[in-house]
Amino acid sequence: MASLLGVSLLARLAITADVMALTMYVVLDLDMSYVAAGGVAAALTAGVALGGPLLGRVIDRRGPRTVLFATCAAQAVFWLSVPMIPYGVLLGAAFAAGLLMVPAQAVTRQAIAAMTTEGQRRAAFALESVQGELSYMVGPPVVILCAAEASSGVMAWGIGAAIVAGGAGLALLDPPLRSGRESQAAAAGRPSRRDWLGPGMIAALVMSFGVTMLLSGTDLAIVAALEEEGQVSWAAVIVAVYGLSSVTGGLVYGRLSRPLPTWLPLGLLGLATLPAGLAGGWPWLCVAVACAGLLAAPALSAVADAVSRLAPAGVRGEATGLQSSALSAGFALGSPVVGGAIDLTSPGGGFAAAGLAGAAAALAGYLLSRRTPTRGRPPSAHSSPDAAPSAAEARPGT
Question: Most CB contacts within 10 A, which of 99, 158, 225, 251?
């Protein structure tokens, strides 16, 4: 597990910074507007959202090594060519690169599900969520610093090299994505979507969308609130406090002796985000986001754990890819939705929009999970994301 998380961290550090790298290149090297940079970022994000389930299906059928090496090759070609292609070509190339993005997060989550028992899995997913927070805290700031010291084209090559190195490391590590019993079950045939893409899985996907929409919207609301107060220089400190608080919450959540309902951390995160809109000045905003941040990593961990439990082994790659698409869509829509709320009201309205989006996703997930059938299907196909594992299910790899 240490090797898996260590190697995947390299790839995820670069992947979380790829949008920032392209933005810096378009603005600084091509001397174009931030709107143009947003177009490239949107193309890459759309490709990632569409490519996740497709790559997941290939992983289910061919295994991770083939997909990892193929996507590494695609990323090498794209990032090497970034400084040499015009803007129009870059738009299409960014979409293609998103479709063939190295599935580091998806492979890591599948491997965690296969390598851990039910009793270990929550702690392992909590560590994976902490890894994600560290990636967002380190990756984009490093790109900004490097772009200030070197050309954006060289920085783009560095991002590509890190993505390729991390993906190749995962391919060489070749972690198991199914336990022995799961491999035997998968050999019997691939279950149809009707068997696993039910209300419980849809609930987990809705909550995945909601948590990233809340997180991306909160980042924008923090900047807007500080700008209104004339304290925008404190934005990096506030975001760092939020990230450190999330890491702390993730570590505490991983040590809980009993699981929480999947919707509960997200619902509490949404409610805890609302008071940040009332904070006046950066010290009180720092306190507000520190309290809310304690629930960020637990919310991410809970939905990842739910997807792993609800997806049969034979389709776990596709299910994890769908979750990656939901996460990407939430990040893409969070900023414009919250930005619209800020323009119509105030920065406090931005926090309200972000918090209510998370709370609404949690409520929708709760209501959908209550519709999950309780019999007539095997446990892996029908378990509610709110259901705690039974003693009979607590075996390696389930």
Answer: 225
Structure tokens at 157: 């090559």
Q: How far is 55 from 244, CA to CA, in rounded Å?
A: 32
Contact between residue 359 and residue 271 where contact means Cβ atoms under 8 Å apart: yes
Could you tell me if 242 and 139 lie in one domain?
A: no
- Which of 117, 151, 177 corresponds to the end of one domain? 177
CA distance 164 to 156: 12
Q: Is 396 contained in some domain?
A: no
Establish if 185 belongs to a structural domain: no
Q: How far apart are CA 236 and CA 66, in angstroms?
A: 39
287 contact partners, CB below 8 Å, separation of at least 6: 279
Distance CA 24, CA 9 (A): 23
142 with 207, same domain?
A: no
Per residue in 268-318, pLDDT tens? 999 999 999 888 788 899 999 999 999 998 998 888 888 888 888 778 788
Q: Where are the beta strands (DSSP E) in the chain?
A: none
Tens of pLDDT, residue by residue over 352-362, are 999 999 999 99
**Which residue has 């990040």 as its token pair?**
331
Structural domain including 17 reads 2-177
Tokens representing 106 are 């998806």
